[in-house]
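If your schedule permits, I should be very grateful for your opinion on a structural question. Kindly check, if you would, that the fold set down in the tokens agrees with what the sequence suggests. Thank you for your consideration; the sequence and its tokens are set out here:
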Amino acid sequence: MARTRLWVLAWLAIFVVGLSLAAPARAGQAAEAYVQGIADDVMAIINDDGLSEKQKRSQLTAILDANIDIEAIALFCLGQYRQGASQADLDEYIPAFRAYLIDFYVGQLGDLEGAALKVTGSEDLGGQKGTVVYSEAEADGDTTEINWRVKGNSSIQDVEVEGVWVALDLREQLVSVIDENSGEISAATDRLKEIAD
């Protein structure tokens, strides 16, 4: 009887450990499938000769809006100034940030015309940190590494292109602008509008 109980406990332990090891793998696979689906949709638009530039931009913007938590990234990019931000400041800043980020990503994606983008793997960062999905864009023998930070397999938090994480780099720039202007968030808003223009 005691031996039977030990065997049951042993198999139960193996089963639980197996589940804990399989969970990250499933999470990574889901994140990879999510990113590959977005990549396929994006590349189909970019490489569609039947679409005008205006149509391509409109469709790419819809994909970005649906899959990037722009407001969360905008607040992240304020750094320490997020805490004291007034609603009036945010009402001006977030739309300016969105316009800039959409312009930036549409421009970057447009440069991939003719390329093939393929997911190559992923890394589960654990907890609330999400998953980094690795991919490569290949065109004319050149390969560009593009990595995606995904949260919950349904939201892109940041994108790394050739070693530079876009949101992290933008936060450094915007915080610097606010620092130079006595903590005024409006300075970052004005800078974003200038760049977008």
The chain has a mean pLDDT of 84. Residues 2-196 form a domain with the Nuclear Transport Factor 2; Chain: A, fold (CATH 3.10.450.710).
